[in-house]
Each structure stands twice: as structure tokens, then as C-alpha cells.
Records
---
Amino acid sequence: MAIGPTLETRRLLLRPPVQEDFDGWAAMMADEESSRFIGGVVDRNAAWRGMAAMAGSWALKGFAMFSLIEKESGEWLGRVGPWQPEGWPGTEVGWGLLKSACGKGYATEASVRVIDWAFEELGWEDVIHCIDPRNAPSIALAERLGSRNRGPGKLPAPWQDAEIEIWGQSREQWRRSRERLYASPSASSA
């Protein structure tokens, strides 16, 4: 049973994680490429604790990352959503997808819906993305969403040594970014 809303896009369902998502979550965290910029490879036990922390954040804070489900197949594709644990540098919308789901526009499609939700339902005034400067696909996604590089940032322990840049935009900047994003011819395939 998921605690929280289910959001929809043209191709996706976004809902809080449930136990049935665990195999996909564990596979993502076991894959070096998929997990490289979201904490690195971990075993199934640590992956379960990570998923449980995300589910627990829904109960404690009323938000966390959503499980990303492809409507047509029902396949778990990754996680996308709001994230702000203790000590985090801001109100983040982040993403992490299975390698097989990358390059298909799922992260863009889901992030647009989640950023809308964070501003409309959570009342956020600002959205950030904490991105390793070597993570070119995430930088490209942040740029596509209209975020700008605000410079180096610092994460709390145990990630205090991670090199990150803070990308972000205000609610007002998002309104302009969203208009531009959906005015482009490729928006329907995002």
C-alpha cells in the first residue's frame, strides 16, 4: 500500500514506492552505471534500507521520490521526485533510472510532472538538483528543465565528500521554463 498520491503523465505512473518495487530498486542499485551518481553500488540489504528510507520519508515528511512505472508494461523504471533529508542543501527534485530506461525521455517527462507537483502541492519556492559535475546526462536534463548551475554544493554525511554542483530554479523561473519546454516541437516526445 502506497502512502501518498499517484501522479500521471502520458506514458508514466508515479507513486510512492511499495514492496513490489524492490527487485527493480535493488537491480538499479546493483548496476554500476545506474547507481554511479546516486550513492554507488550496494547489495540487496542496503538497497532495501535505501528504499525503506524513501518510503519512510513519505510517512514523515509527506513527500519523497516516486517509483516510476511505465503505464503500458507496468515495469518499474526508476525513481524520480522530491527529496530533502536532514541537512540537505535545499528542496531537490532528483532522479535515478535503470540503465534500460535511460535515453527515452522518461526522466524529463517525470521531472516536469514532479516539479509542477512540488510547486503546486508542496508549496516549494525553489527546486534544486544536486549533480556530480561528471554526470553529463543529468546536467543535460537539468538544463532541459531550465535549471542553471549555481555552483558547488555540500551534502550531509555520509556523502560529505561527494563533489556536487547545485543546479536549480525558482518557482517563477520554472513557470517560464515550462512554457518554453512545452512550446518546443520535441516536447511531445520528452
Note: Helices lie at 22-30, 32-35, 44-61, 106-120, 136-144, 171-183.
---
Amino acid sequence: MVRAVPQTAAGFKSGMGRGLVLALGAAAVVITAAGIRAGAEIVAPVMLSLVLTIAVLPLWRWAKGHRWPGWAATLLALVAACAIVLVLVLGTVLAIVKLVELLPQYADNAQQLRGDGKDFLTSHGIGSKPAKAAVDQLDPAKLVSALTTLLQGVLGAVGNLFFLVTLLFFLCTAVPLAGARFATLRAAKPELAGSLSRFVGATQRYLVVTALFGAIVAVLDTGALWLLGVPLPLVWGLFSFITNFIPNIGFVVGVIPPALLALLDEGWGKALLVVVVYSGLNVVIQTFIQPHYVGATVGLSTEMTFLSLVVWTFLLGPLGALLAVPMTLLVKALLIDPDERAAWVSPLISTTVDPPEADVAPTPDPEPDPAPAAAPV
């Protein structure tokens, strides 16, 4: 009688074909992505509160280093995190509200621009309905209606502000216990603890670098808009600072309000000038200079950053655009960095790739010198 030998885990693993492993992995990714998208209203605020808590950790450490009481250090971190939320929300709401207030003043100019646009299309033989429909969209009443809908969506998101502040409170109060928890995790899973520690540091560096370049861009944009005579340059400068946290395409979102006002105020020439100036300032800084420093800071290539923007915006909505880089860093810290089997992924998403060391043939040991002949007696 032959006795059946139980199949070991290693044998089962080796018996699985690579195609089956890839298919199961792809299915797991799709299911996880669908779950994230379905729960975006919960996942996005949770991740935002986590990122904000990581952002204010240096303040908590500074307060503790200066012998502040624990409750005072925690309160400082919580207030700073809430202040960041208020800047982001109020800056966005202020930009939309001011644009809604200004647009009705340009109703006559918009009517003239629409007429000129239709005449231009007709004179050049472009009489298609989609082209004329696009020109008809240049109507302050329609724009105000669309912006009002957008504002209601933003204010609806603000309705979750209590949930976000509650999350921030609990996460900030848990900061004093983070050291002991990391020590326990490091003892059990040193690779995972190390990758999460690097995630925290990379996220902090990313936020600092992005805020620094955002401040530079905001000052330059405000000055340029003031020189060009565009209304409310300070508001659009603040809006450009906020949109700078959207990787790669943030300036495209930030240029829309001032370019629209320039178009309604003085026509296509002024609008084109605003776009050119914005592009000259923002493309150089946000497309060429900032990605280099951000990539060197967080270890993500430019194309990976843009892909992260697309994926996380699709999964989490507008907040996904702001959280694209931190979310990708978290996935990298959980799934790639702690696992040696996934080490091959790092060169594909990193900014720099270390070339493999060339195999050098070992140098043979030199033959020992022959023993000296014995001296004659």
C-alpha cells in the first residue's frame, strides 16, 4: 500500500504556473481597487487625516523636545492639522465664490465674444454644431450654474469635516504611543517597520518640498497677475498654491479662473497672455524643477507620479489628486519594500536605477614562493 505524501506549501507554490499567479494577482488588484472606489467617502478622509498627522509630527517632536506637556504637544499638532484643512478648504471655496461673484459683471462682454466666435467659425468654414455649442458655453449664466454645482459639491464634502476632525483628534492623541508601537512592530517585522518609517519620512519631505515650491509659484503668479491687471490676483495666487499639491497638472487647474476672467475682461489676447505667463512660470517650476526634487525626495519617477495621479483620482475622487503621491508611497511601503521577492519592482518606479554590478572573475591566489634551499652546513 502506497502512502500518500501531503503536498507542502512550497510544493504547491512551485506547482502554480506563473500565468496563474499573475491572474490571481490581477484579480486581487481589481477587487481591492473596486472596494477602495466603493468606499472612497471613508477611505479618502481617513488617508487625508493620516497624511495630515504625519505632516504635523515634527511639531509634536519639537514641542516635546522643548519640554512641553504631552497634552500641549498633542493640542499643537491637532491645531496645526486643522489649520491646514481650513487653508485648503477655504482657499478653494474662496476661489469659486469670487469667480461666481465676478462672472455676471461680464455678461455683455461674453455676449460679444460669443458673437465674434460664431462669426470667426463661419468665416473659416467651421459651422459644425459641436463647435458652435462650445462657443455657446461662454455664457456667464451657464458658468455660474456650473460653478454653483461645483461649490455645492465642495460644501457637501465640507459636511464631512466633523468626521475628518474626529479622525485627526484620535490620530494625534495616538502619536505619543507611536514610538512603542513601532518598537513592537520592529521586533516582530523589522522589514515592515523599516519601510513604514521610510514612508513617514518620505511623506514629510514630499509635503515640505511641495509646499515650498507652491509658495514660490503663488508669489510669482500673484505678481504676474497683478502686473497684467487681472482681478483678485491674491485669490488666484492662493489657489495656485493649493493646486500645486496636484502632481504634474496642478497649474492647469490653477490657470483656469484668471484666464477666464482675462478673456471676459479684455478678450482673447489678454487670456492668451495669462496662459503664456502661467505656462512660462509654472511649467518651468512644476514640470522641470519640482519633479526633480520631489522624485529625489520620495524616490518616484515622474511617469509614476503622473500614473499615481490618474489612478488615485479615479479611485478616490478629487481628494485622490491631492493624496496621489502619499498613497503610492504607502502601497510601496506595505507591498514592495518589505518583500525581497518584489525588489524587481523598485527599479521600474524609482527616479534612479543603480546598474547591476559587472561580474568580475575571481583573481586566483598567487602561488606560494618555493621554500628556500637549506644552507650548507
Note: Residues 336 and 374 are 65 Å apart (CA to CA).
---
Amino acid sequence: MEVREHQFLAATANVDYSFRRLRGVGNMLFGGTGIFIDTFTGGQGGGTVWLHGYGNVFERVLGPGEAFDVEPGGWVYKDPTVSMEIKMVGLRMGMLSGSGNLVFNRFTGPGRIGIQTMYLHMPTED
């Protein structure tokens, strides 16, 4: 299971942990130098991982090639079989004209993704 940074609470002893940093312009917009993805793998007999999500967390199961777009702060976890790419769409029409880009994550199946119904942006202190 791959988990968005700051969502992990606890795991059983037979769960292995690693992490990686995702760099790139889209990730840097929301994470400064990028975001971290925590990876959990169950050992012999599996394991249990507890995660935190704001609001409610719903699981969406994607079929092969099925895509689902999520605002960058809206996802909690995904299966390793689910690919994720950053999409930026320019807003150039109507009332939103000239206001910049809309950024979201596109997840493509097969596999599960966990979506949280809200998320909290903490103000930074200088």
C-alpha cells in the first residue's frame, strides 16, 4: 500500500516500511520540494496499517485503465498497481479566466484508492 505523507498512525510488527519523495512541478506546488509517499508491505501472513483521514474516507476500486481525478489533498492511499500522474489544466474561459491552473492527481487502475472528504491545510509559521 502506498500512503500520502502524514496519514500514517500505526502498524503491526510484521509490516515493512519505506518511503520515497516525488519531485516535479506539480508536486512542488503543494509540498515545497515535493511530497513523500510512504510504502507499507505486509510480511508473512499480512499485517494491519492504521491511517488517518480527515472527514470520511471512501475506497474506490478502479478497473484496468479506468482513471479517476482527485484534488491533490484529497487522497489517502493507493495500491501500488494504481499509477498517479499530475495534471495541470489552464483556466482560460469565463469567470475563471486568467486565474491560473487547476492541479489534480489522475489515478489509473487497476486497484484501490482511498479518498478523504475533506483535508486540513495548516498555516505555516515564519
Note: The mean pLDDT is 83.
